[in-house]
């Protein structure tokens, strides 16, 4: 558990996040290099109290295609935690550069519904550094409490910092077969303009999402959609049926190259009351995002 707390008076601006991220890869003032399981991580918690802005929630609902029903969509909790995650990830004491890292999983455990206008206190810390075949995994954990101090939710963002590790030579297993999938239960359409709108609402203006040139700079044929946009937009197929107390788990696959049409495939588990939603490429069938919505 972190022993120090940094209390923010306001979330860092998008310009500050971008500038600090790019600074982290400069050779003179960059980071220390490859991580090891024993590498020390920032021993502090970042804290921020926010009033959930109804207007911003409305803009978020519009850009991810959800109805503005007077409650906060579950993936909006990730948007609230994002600036605190970046404050830690981009800090001088963080031992690796954030640029080039990959958001691979996200888990939100919501204990009750959140409504616009509420005051929430967020506390974010980092830990659980561990090896993976493609690099090092690390968890950013955010706890949400309300004005009374009661726990409202927790959110874990798992990032992959790409590098060689002792597991890099291990076999990856057979590649999943690709092929045109069957008819989807629903479709998502997304383009660069919509993703730039999402960037403005979410505060995540990573260049990889903002323009084709930004995407090409990181090895993609064009810009890519935020995985968090896809994860939020997928919830359209269960809108009105997400429990008050819920676990929303997301595993990110191949990025969505813009513009795109994505198929949503829905499977319900009658025994648990949960739902699995998979966003797939309509030509090759590989998953972009796999999500489960399970009653807590």
Automatic annotation (TrEMBL):
UniProt-listed SUPFAM superfamilies: Thioesterase/thiol ester dehydrase-isomerase
Region forming the signal peptide: none
One GO location term (cellular component): fatty acid synthase complex
GO biological process: fatty acid biosynthetic process
Domain of life of the organism encoding this protein: Bacteria
InterPro entries cross-referenced by the UniProt entry: Fatty_acid_synthase, HotDog_dom_sf, MaoC-like_dom
Domain MaoC-like stretches: 191-280
Chain segments carrying region Disordered: 164-186
Gene Ontology molecular function, alphabetical: fatty acid synthase activity
Sequence similarity: Belongs to the enoyl-CoA hydratase/isomerase family.
Protein name as catalogued: MaoC-like domain-containing protein
